[in-house]
Amino acid sequence: MLGRDPYDIDLVTPGPPEPLARKFADSIGGRFFIMSGEFMTCRAISADGLVNYDFAALRGGHIIEDLGERDFTVNAMAVELPGGKKVIDPFGGGAHLAGREMVPVNDSIFDNDPLRLLRAPRLEKTHKLVIGPSLARLISARATLASSPAAERIFLELSRILAAPGVSASVARLDELGLLEVLLPELSALKGVTQNEYHHLDVFNHVLASVEALENELDNPESFFPGRGQAIGKRINRGIAGDADCRLALILAALFHDIAKPHCRFIDEDGQVRFFEHDRLGADLADDILTRFKVSNETKKTVTHLVRRHLRFEGLLQENIPSDRACLRYLKATEPWSIEAILLSVSDRLAVRGARVSEKDIDHHLGLARSLMEQAFTREETRPLPALVSGDELMRDLGIGPGPTVGELLDQIQNEQELGNIVSREQALTLARKLASWNSENSSRPAGGG
Questions:
Q1: 218-257, pLDDT tens digit by residue?
Q2: Where are the domains of the chain?
Q3: Rounded Cα distance, 42 and 15, in Å
Q4: pLDDT in tens, 120-170
């Protein structure tokens, strides 16, 4: 009816669904598995993995009774197979769909399945349906139920909402419906937290502006990073784990990057609002949130890595023209997500428009971001450089045993190699001798001496 190709097809059968679903999966060369033995539901997946066919036992004695157990009238329609000519529409779903109205089948739909509280704003966003005032009131009245489904199911619905265009508006909508405070109280707590004169927004609205700027970057990477747009687009669409791709991880990092500011806010002796350590504590809070939703370790590591390091770009901006060594330190500190960290830094900067921020500041940030982006891609395309010297060679040459000193020396040798300052084994050993000698001299000095 909407002119879309369906990727999730629901089928009901008066008898047990398993034999039919197995036979159907075999006939299309797809896969089969049982989703719920208790509720007699099975799934067949097409050979290309793109279409799900969910088979369930008919609830009640008639299809109309079954449809009466569903959520919204637009989802409470059916066709009889084979044939599928006549639409069974006992609740007026076709007319509601034509008017883009989302109407509940009955007022108990959220009591029966609280996950529908999230499905409503998801359908509003993805299918351009409208949550009218009466449905909005019903959702708000039942909002406290939103945390009761399994954590994985909640995160799946949240991720679908965050994957649709207009993330900032979606988060604001969840807040309007009373769902944000139930599911992400840490994000809701950012409302009203004022900042210093570099900012024109409170923390909550700054985060929403950051997400909006990030979406603009991800949708138009070539305009921000000329020559690298296609590579960025390919990169952000790659999967991290089964529950997230790179784009979703970046969106989550943008949402959580200032999540700890309410806990870190203080006013210094000069009357300036400060948020010391909010990057470190923010990473811990992000980890707690994602653990609560049972998100995969790979996705958690990516998001917390970006949150923990989102301020490192500010250090580079303190220098008018950062040194090559400083830029390399940034790239090594943010790898393997340096490209994503740069994207996040730009979105954060674009959401800061306070009285003490000039267009020159923003242009400086973008210029440095473009330079670092090119370096980040170049490092990925040319690495790894061949090691000039091994740990065993260092130990033999310097007469030292295994330990952290060997690793530190190898890191510094690799840094100088990447900067183009050394190119041979002898140069690497010479550098290691100098560094070892300097470290020895400094460690032998008394504290406070010299």
A1: 999 999 999 999 999 999 999 999 889 999 999 999 999 9
A2: 107-183, 195-382, 391-444
A3: 13
A4: 999 999 999 999 999 999 999 999 999 999 999 999 999 999 999 999 999
Helix (H) or strand (E) holding 52: strand 52-57
Please report the pLDDT score of residue 445 as a whole number. 55
Q: What is the largest CA-CA distance in the chain?
A: 92
**53 Cβ neighbours under 8 A, 6+ residues apart:** 9, 11, 21, 24, 25, 30, 43, 44, 45, 46
Distance, CA of 390 to CA of 410 (rounded, Å): 8
Cα distance between residue 419 and residue 415, in whole Å: 6
- Strand (E) or helix (H) holding 377: helix 359-382
In terms of Cβ atoms closer than 10 Å to its own Cβ (0-12, 13-18, 19+), residue 304 is: buried
Per-residue pLDDT band for 436 (boundaries 50, 70, 90) equals confident
Residue of 176, 173, 159 lying closest to 121 (CA atoms): 173
**265 contact partners, CB below 8 Å, separation of at least 6:** 193, 273, 274, 275
> If you search the block for the tokens 């909010």, which residue do you land on?
278
Quick one: fold of 107-183? Hydrophobic Seed Protein (1.10.110)
